[in-house]
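User: structure tokens for this one?
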Amino acid sequence: MLYELSEDKYEEAIHLLDISYKNKIIMNYEYEKIKNIIELFAFGINDEGLMKYENSDDYVKYQLNKILRMVNKSSN
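Assistant:
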């Protein structure tokens, strides 16, 4: 999995993350972890982003993948 996010896609991903947090789908710990990984991908620091992704628990991975799939679908 390799993601690079443009500025628009980064903002959309953060917006979706905020919605998930406000609707209590994710808690603060997961929010911060996912936001950090999204930022790493957005700023092209993919190696560190992938390492943090791989070291995350399954729920964080699931939510991050869901957000990134939604962002990528909107570009099609």
